[in-house]
TrEMBL record:
InterPro entries: DUF1275. The lineage of its organism: Bacteria, Pseudomonadati, Pseudomonadota, Gammaproteobacteria, Enterobacterales. Keywords: Membrane, Transmembrane, Transmembrane helix. This is DUF1275 domain-containing protein. It comes from Rouxiella silvae. The chain crosses the membrane at residues 20-45, 65-85, 97-115, 156-175, 190-210, 216-240. PANTHER family: SLR0142 PROTEIN, UPF0700 TRANSMEMBRANE PROTEIN YOAK. Pfam families: DUF1275. The keyword Transmembrane applies. The keyword Glycoprotein does not apply.
Length: 251
């Protein structure tokens, strides 16, 4: 399962993508719901935030417009940051680069959650939400790059669209009674999208319950979980590489 974070030279399997969806879409749903419980806003709901920004432009309160614009900008900057780090890592042949990105995200999440645990104030809530938007941008960009767009951990609108397309393709093949070679691919992709959707929904329910019970400590736990997954993936990759080197040495 930890191999899901490693960019393969060959084609990724649907199992890799589903494991990726289980981890990243679930944690995205958890963090999204926790942010709603804490601040009353979704840090990854860019469609809604952009629509709200459009409506707020006509209002006289400039601070709300700037806040929403900052949230959207932070999400984009997070996505750009993830991509630039990935490009640098792949250029230098660092196979664990996506694990490193997830590790950095988990560490930042732990720090910001600890800060909120001990120093929570309504006065700094906007800054925290913007920073969470940045982390959500990193999160979604990482899963999108790893899966070549098949798993978008926070972009549920796109996932629902992909589900509709994949389902229609499978249905059309069945109605033709002349299934093409692509039917199995579409069916497998449909299952992957459904795993992503259900993971995000389950994560959202769990996130609200956990935040109500444990507050910001539960957000710390999510950050620690991401750190452990990333470290496990890096460790596994190093072990496999060493074994291969030893085999080549003895040959």
């Amino acid at each position: 399962m930890l191999s899901m974070l490693i960019r393969r030279k060959g084609r990724r399997t649907h199992t890799d993508d589903r494991n990726l969806a289980l981890v990243l879409a679930t944690t995205a749903g958890i963090l999204n719901a926790m942010a709603l419980g804490a601040f009353g806003i979704f840090p990854s709901h860019m469609s809604g935030n952009t629509s709200q920004l459009s409506s707020e432009v006509s209002n006289t309160d400039l601070s709300d417009v700037l806040f929403l614009a900052a949230m959207i900008g932070a999400f984009v900057i997070g996505s750009v940051t993830s991509r630039l780090i990935a490009i640098s890592g792949l250029k230098n042949n660092i196979r664990t680069i996506y694990s490193i990105i997830l590790l950095l995200e988990g560490i930042l999440l732990v720090f910001i959650s600890l800060f909120e645990t001990y120093y929570y104030s309504y006065g700094n809530s906007h800054e925290i939400i913007i920073f969470l938007g940045f982390l959500m941008g990193v999160h979604n960009s990482t899963s999108t790059q790893l899966s070549s767009g098949r798993v978008r951990s926070t972009h549920i609108t796109g996932t629902l669209t992909d589900i509709g397309i994949a389902f229609a393709s499978v249905l059309a093949s069945l109605l033709r009674r002349d299934p093409s070679k692509q039917v199995k691919v579409q069916r497998s992709q449909l299952i992957t999208h459904l795993v992503t959707l259900s993971s995000f929904l389950i994560g959202g329910i769990a996130g609200l319950l956990l935040f109500k019970q444990f507050g910001f400590n539960s957000m710390v736990a999510v950050g620690i979980f991401l750190v452990l997954v990333a470290i496990g993936s890096i460790t596994l990759t190093i072990m496999i590489s060493r074994r291969r080197m030893m085999r080549l040495h003895f040959l």
